[in-house]
Every structure is written in structure tokens, then in C-alpha cells.
Amino acid sequence: MFQQLSNKTLIEAYENAKFLRLDEEFISLLELELNNRGLSVKVENTNTKKKRNQSIVAHPMTPDLNS
Fold first, then answer.
1. What is the per-residue pLDDT for 58?
2. DSSP 8-state code for residue 45
3. Helix or strand holding residue 24 (H, E)
4. Model confidence, pTM
5. Which residues are 44's β-sheet partners?
């Protein structure tokens, strides 16, 4: 579904979806594609007063954001 998106665009879409609190099913699809690509993303959790990072990691790889 997201194969045509560059890694950078996919990461931006995920970050924006989390920030805007979009549908969890859509966010899950983005997370699945991130995992498939072996990308790691840190997003600030806006649901709590203390900000903490969330990490999605599939494989210990360095993402190529130019893909």
C-alpha cells in the first residue's frame, strides 16, 4: 500500500498521524510498513503530561532516508 512512498515521507506520515491522533488502524498500517522497512521512529507521546518517546524497531538497521 505504501511502497511508493520514500522512507522520509513514510516517517513524516507516521509522525503526523500520531500527532493528529488519526485512526489507530491507519497508524497500524503505517507501523507495519515501517517495520517491514526496518525503520525506527521516535514520536513524542502527546497523551501524557510528561513527554516520552515511542520507538518502533523491526531490525537494527540504519534507515536510508533518501529511498
1. 46
2. -
3. helix 24-37
4. 0.64
5. 53
Question: At 38, which amino acid appears?
Answer: G
* Contacting residues for 1 by C-beta, under 8 A, at least 6 apart: 29, 33
Contact 67, 10 (CB under 8 A): no
Inter-residue contact 63 to 37 (CB < 8 Å): yes
The set of residues, in sequence order, having a beta carbon less than 8 Å from that of 64 and lying 6+ positions away, is 7
Q: How many whole angstroms separate alpha carbon 17 and alpha carbon 20?
A: 5
Write out pLDDT tens, residues 7-54: 999 999 999 999 999 999 999 999 999 999 999 887 666 554 444 455
Residue labelled with grid coordinates 505504501? 2
- Asked if 31 and 56 touch (Cβ cutoff 8 Å), the reply is yes
